Amino acid sequence: MTLRFTNYLIGIIILIIAGCSQQPETVDELDSKVNDLLAQMTLEEKIGQMNLYNGFWDITGPAPQSGAAADKYQHLENGWVGAMLNIHGTENVRKIQEIAVNESRLGIPVLFGYDIIHGYKTLSPIPLAEAASWDLEAIEQSARIGAIEASAAGINWTFAPMVDISRDARWGRVMEGGGEDPYLGARIAAARVRGFQGEDLSATNTIAACAKHFAGYGFAEAGRDYNTVDIGTVTLYNEVLPPFKAAVDQGVRTLMNSFNILNGIPATGDAFLQKEILKGKWAFNGFVVSDWGSTGEMISHGYAENLAHAAQLAANAGSDMDMESYAYVKHLKNKVDSGLVDLSVIDDAVKRILRVKFELGLFDDPFLYCDPDREKEMVYHQQHQQAVLDMARKSMVLLKNENHLLPLSRGRQRVAVIGALADDNNSPLGSWRISSDDSTAVSLLEGMEPYGAEISYAKGADLITESATFLQNVQINETDKSGFREAIRVARRSDIVVMVLGEHGFQSGEGRSRTQLDLPGVQQELLEAVYEVNKNIVLVLMNGRPLAIPWAAEHIPTILEVWHLGSQSGHAIAQVLFGEYNPSGKLPMSFPRSVGQVPIGYNKYNTGRAIPQDNVFWSTYTDQLIDPLFPFGHGLSYTQFDYSDLSIEVTGSNQYEVKVSVTNSGQIAGEEVTQLYLRDVAASVARPVKELKGFQKYSLAPGESKTVVFQLTEKELGFYDGQGNFMVEPGKFQVMVGTSSVEGLSGEFTL
Ligand code: NOJ
Q1: Which of 77, 193, 247, 464 has a beta carbon 3.0–4.6 Å from 103's, enabling a disulfide?
Q2: Which domain CATH number covers 349?
Q3: Ligand 1 mutation pick, 60, 196, 294, max ligand atoms within 8 A of CB
Q4: Cβ 431 under 6 angstroms from ligand 1
């Protein structure tokens, strides 16, 4: 750990202590406060708590049909607003909170929610990139920084983490999650909740988290956002739900339901998910918020007849707060009066919401998060830049490095840098950065400046034709190749070419599904044109989702996946390019060879015809291989890690210890992520060919060895059947431990 970073951590600890409040209350004390307040509330005031209104400026969904500003102010005065979103900055928040607290009869403070997806102003890498670090401490720290900045700006609730598992890179929101694997996704979900909520929710620098989208949203048919989800319950229990369960076990205070239909029922109106599983089996005592307009969208789904019916269905299904459908505020009272919604449903929802407000300390001080001095000090804090830089370095994945083209040797090579994304301060900020300031990332060209290399830059081609915004589709340059000539000229007289290609920051994210996963626009042509004159290419891929780049994987010697890395992007990439930081990331999602393979994941089931045949009658494609281009868990280093001596020992009833020896046989220090995969060979419900069940990240000096030890317990050995029962079954298990999902040492044991 560098001294600078140690100092930074000490700083963060001081900030955390400074944010601490007094001892939290006991559950009973809290319950009695909640009940006392509830007893004073009229039905309208209770229903009022169940409404989440958008603010007055930003929108993060379709423009609402109702909810004029004047109405919103009036509703605040009436005590009919439980929470608001997209209002930030201490001054703005204070203004609204003053109305709620001073004008309404009971003065119940409002929650202020915002999408702190990868930071408030200082942006860390997009969540998918952070997942590639497999570094839970760093991921927690990153969420912590988001919480520190957002809470200083008046926010007390984030709509994060998104914990949707997805194997479909067409779906634009894969950038927002932890990737394709439920085990990794669950560990990351817990880390992010810890980061946002800290130890004490009422501290001034922690905020309530929201695990979303409950549930199945990442399995949207054909990767099209908001689309139908039809999955079996085995998939639901084993793949979709584990990250939500991990978030609940970590104490997440809220969940958001999702836009999609899940097996015929819109998630917002799904009592099985929200009441039976979440609030029943899992005993979750926080509240559930709908997604933007998702209560009303049940009409379009063909599930609710009208908005009043939608309100009834959603409330009865356990959706406690309505975001931007205006269904509850308009119709719930009637539904209660006519006996279609029981008062106990309303009381339960309101208690949950009030409890979170008490836990946040808002009843002690509604302006707890409204200190302008703290806002000035914490937002864009210098220490946060250092932390997001560290996170960015950890998030890159070296996909390929033939002939050791990387690292570059400082000052001894003529380097051509080509690609519009190399000179882009905006794209690295990613898609979900509504709170931050556009064009504030360090571009790669800026990041390379201090290295004293002889660098010539040529854009080659524009990536987009018009400036892009969060609300609209980006316009991609599909035709203009006028910059190719200059790029070719520059490449020809250089020793090495760094080509920065990929997706614009607004090409992934919500509402940004793609049917193609190749390099957008004319970038592939540019790459091939440059390759004609100089084959020493380092391809720096900047994108928000796995891309299908088979030509590049075959021809380009070195490929570094950098994603959208946030505020410090350019510095972080330059440090990896010049060898100041040894890359250690591993893919959290498989990269397909072509879009036709998608959805694709490593933890697939075998078919009955899995073994290649010399005829066509086995499970394959006639025009493409079936394995991914770059598999889950893959990622290289500038050094080399050798695996040996796998051993498996029984340590108790249904308990095993798995050990492996790992040696850094290269010349420099590096970090490795050792991954353990299991297969339950024959079970009453067929299990995937491989499932991640453990991983460890650690650093080794050159020549150093380490014994990596994993403990397997029933938790790792078991699975859920289609009814949600957790089973551990005797029989043969295969174990693989190694450096990726396809490379490692194998063993087996019989339970
Ligand atoms: C819709 C998105 O699906 C959700 O994730 C987000 O939190 C809300 N909009 C609010 O911006």
Answers
A1: 77
A2: 3.20.20.300
A3: 60
A4: no
Least confident of 25-39, 217-231, 234-248, 273-287: 25-39
Ligand 1 center–CA 213 separation, angstroms:
9
Cα–Cα dist 549/593, whole Å? 7
- Residue 52 in domain: yes
Same domain, 565 and 647: no
The verdict on 445 and 328 lying in the same domain is: no
CA of 115 to the centre of ligand 1 (A): 7
Q: Could you confirm whether 721 is annotated as catalytic?
A: no
Q: Is 510 in the pocket of ligand 1 (CB under 6 A)?
A: yes
Domain membership of residue 629 (yes or no) is: no
DSSP 345-396: HHHHHHHHHHHHHHHTTTTT-TTTT--HHHHHHHTT-HHHHHHHHHHHHHH-
Distance (Å, whole) CA 364 – CA 543: 44
- Residue 60 C-alpha to ligand 1 middle, in angstroms? 6
464 and 579 in a single domain? The answer is yes
Task: Give the tens place of pLDDT for each residue, 364-376.
Answer: 999 999 999 999 9
Q: Per-residue pLDDT tens for 561-587?
A: 999 999 999 999 999 999 999 999 999
Is residue 297 within 8 Å of 265, Cβ to Cβ?
A: no
Number of domains the chain is built from: 3
CATH number for the domain including 580?
Answer: 3.40.50.1700
Looking at the fold, whether 453 and 564 belong to one and the same domain comes out as yes
pTM above 0.90, yes or no: yes
Q: Which is it for strands 83-85 and 111-114: parallel, antiparallel or unpaired?
A: parallel
**512 and 582 housed in the same domain:** yes
